[in-house]
Write a structure and sequence with these properties.
459 residues, 4 domains, 3-stranded antiparallel β-sheet, 14 strands, binds zinc ion
Length: 459
Amino acid sequence: MDHEERDRAEAQSAGAFADELRAIHADEAALQARKLRLLARAFELAETQKARIPSMRSRERDMPLRSLAAELGLAVRMNDRTMQSHLWDAHRLVTDFPATVDALGSGDISRAHASAILDAGADIDDASARGAYEQAVLDHARGTTAARTRSFAQQQADIHNPRTLQERHDSAVQGRRIWVTDLADGMSQLNLLTSTALAHGILDRTTRQAKLIKRLDAAARRDSMSAPVEGDGAGGDHVARGEDASTGAAADDTWFDQRTIDQTRADLVIDLLLTGSPAIDPTLDASPGGLGAIRAMVQVTVPVTTLTGVTTGGAELDGRAPVDAETARRLAGDAPGWDRVMTDPVTGIVLTVDRYQPSAEQKRFLHARDQHCRFPGCRRPARSCDHDHTQDFALGGPTEICNLACFCKRHHTLKHNTDWTVRQLPGGTLEWTSPAGAHYLEDPPARVVFVPSADPPPF
Ligand SMILES: [Zn+2]
C-alpha cells in the first residue's frame, strides 16, 4: 500500500467515525426530547393534583410537585431539588417552545441548544413574540454550536421581547441571592447575584480601598529607605518582613504588605462581610447590636490528632467540605459559635461534642451523627435543620436519639404533608418509602474519613 492509498483509507476512517458520531448525537437528542416530554407529562400530573388542593398557601400547593420530584429524582439517583428544576424546564420547553423540542426530537439540535433557547427566551411572555424569537434562533441553531446559539439567542430575545429593559430588570433583580460553591483544596467560592450597578460598585469600592493600602504601603517603604524607623512588626498574617531588592539595601526594621491587589480586595470583602454591621438594620432599635451582632456560624468536625498536631488530616465543614488543619486548629481555639466535634481518627466514632453556648445533649448528638438533612441526597447542614420525631410525638413516639433525625425545612414538610414515609432502623439508618412504594435506605454519614498516615494516636 503506497502513501496515497494509506492516506485515503485513513481519511475514509475519520469520515466514518464522524458519520457514526453524528448518528449517535441524533439518537441522543431524540432520547432527550423523549425525556423532556415524559417530564412535562409528570409535571402536568403534579399540576392536576395541585388543582385539587383547596388551600391557597403556596407551600401546600407546592407539595405534589415536591413529592413527585423526590420520587423521580431518587429513581435516577438525582437530588430532588435538581429534579424539580428539570421538571420545570421540561414543562416550559414543551409548552412554550414546542418547535425546539421537535427539532431536538429529529436530531437537528442538541439539548444544550434547547437550554440556550429556553434560558434566553424564558421571560418573553407574549406568545407570538416568543414564537418569532424561537423560529429566528432555531434557524441559526441548526448550523452552529450551543455556545454561539446562546449569545445569538440573547440578542434575539432583546429584539423580540416586548418588555422593556426596565421591566425585565425589575423581575430579574427578584432573583438576587448569594450562594457558595465548594471547590478542592479546602477552598470555596462565594457567589453574589445582584444588579450590575451594585456589583461593579462593590468591585470599584474594594479596588480603590486596596489601591489606597498599596499607596500607603509604598510610601512606608520609601520612608523606611530614607529614614529607617524602629518598627514593631505589628501586622496581620500577610505582612512580611521587607527588603528592597532594587537598591539592595536591607530594611530590616520595616514590615511590608506583600499581598497582591486581588488578595487585598478579597481580604477587604471578607473583613467587611464577617465583621461589618449593615447600614440598614431593622432590628437596631429593638435589641442591642441588631444584625451586626449576629456572627457567622459553621460546624466543623476535627480529628483529635489534628487538633493536637499529631496529624494534619483534614477537618470537615458541615459534612461536605474539607477544611485545612491550620484553619481547623485556629477555629477550635476559643471562637464562640463553633461546634467542635472530636472524632477518633481511626474508628471515626464521635468522642465529644462541645459548644460555647450550651444546647441540648440530644441536639448536639444529632448534629454530630447526622451532619446534614437525612433525606437521601440532601446536604443542608444539620445546624439549619429541624429535629424531627421519626414516629410522631403525638402518636407516642419517644424523644430519644433512636426516634429523632435532622431534616431540612423542605424535607421535613415533605414528610408531613405528602405520602412519603420514613422509619428508623438501628444505628441511625433511615428507611424512606416513596408514595409509589420505592424504598431507600439512608445511613448516617460515615465518620471513618480521617485515617492518620504515620504515628498512632496519643491515647
Ligand atoms: Zn433536606
